Amino acid sequence: MKNTPELRTWLDDLKLEHPVVIAGPCSAETEEQVLGIAHQLKDTDVSYLRAGIWKPRTRPGNFEGVGAIGLNWLKKAKEETGLKIATEVANKAHVDLALEADVDMLWIGARSTVSPFIVQEIADALKGTDKIVLIKNPVNPDLSLWLGGIERLAKSNIKNLGVIHRGFSSYEKSKYRNIPEWQIAIELQNRFPDLPLICDPSHITGKRDMIFDVSQTALDLNYDGLMIETHTDPDHAWSDAAQQVTPQTLVQIMKDLKIRKESDPEGEYNTQLNNLRAQIDVIDNNLIDLLGKRMKVADNIGELKKDRNVAVLQTKRWNEILGKMIWEGEQQGLSEEFVLRIFKAIHQESINHQEKILKG
Ligand SMILES: C=C(O[C@@H]1C=C(C(=O)O)C=C[C@H]1O)C(=O)O
């Protein structure tokens, strides 16, 4: 699949002056709930009313969605408010029912994206549709799997495509429900700059008081839209209560968010920007130069170890370096997480270099 400006057509056709907003409850619960939320979202920045009807849950025994009847509630909400409607599909039966209900936007959930069989089944069922089809990132941080899902949809001749970044599962404890790993979405943007990219801060954060901050980060990174779970009584929602906001909060979030433009033609801004970027270029060259030099020293250490038949990994020395560099990093305003990441990568490269010598 190639990037083309046509990928943005459905988004451009909306003619919005703000990011596209998809909002609504995590799950459709009752007709009154869906209609109540829809009416409160009418005349806001929201273009698409979302509601989950079939809910994939981690453990059995939780609320698994109201099923097809929810489509009637969404249709009614569309008739009454003019909002377009969106729901998640996870198999061919869901797709057939959603298309029959004339749902405007369908999305594939993170737990489905991990399965090429499921994505292919959905792509086949949607073949040639002019509906908008969005694909969430897989639960695991695997860009190829995400791209593979998009390619399957594109091969099924689906033109109105987009992606939703909802963060990635991790065993590690984190302040996020699903760690954003922004660099994965940035890489995806690099490959497909015109593919509409939507952020789902509700699933990334899992907590309503972090939604604004993550949404702002997404806009700072050029995202095209937001999918935000919205409920008139979030605390009593039947699923994902902690991450849903009221329609009033959503309106406030949209008001407070700063919408960034991609660039600015203004002269003085560009002069200063180019100046600073020239400084970054010099520093980057120095970094590469220093890293190359460091690896040459590691090569020499490798030769020494080879002569004496000593193991490459020296945990004590390595831990001393880490401790020192975390402290030094702190003095330079660098986070521990960043220093650890960089030095683990440097250490691995150094080990690879020495391995080559010991095995050579
Ligand atoms: C370079 C060495 O080998 C390994 C690599 C290290 C590094 O790159 O700093 C540190 C400890 C070792 O695990 C060494 O023993 O000093």
TrEMBL record:
GO molecular function: chorismate mutase activity; transferase activity
PROSITE patterns named in the record: CHORISMATE_MUT_2
Pfam families xrefs: CM_2, DAHP_synth_1
The keyword Transferase is assigned to this record: yes
EC number in record: 5.4.99.5
PANTHER family reported for this sequence: PHOSPHO-2-DEHYDRO-3-DEOXYHEPTONATE ALDOLASE, PROTEIN AROA(G)
Name used for this protein in its record: chorismate mutase
Species this chain originates from: Robertkochia marina
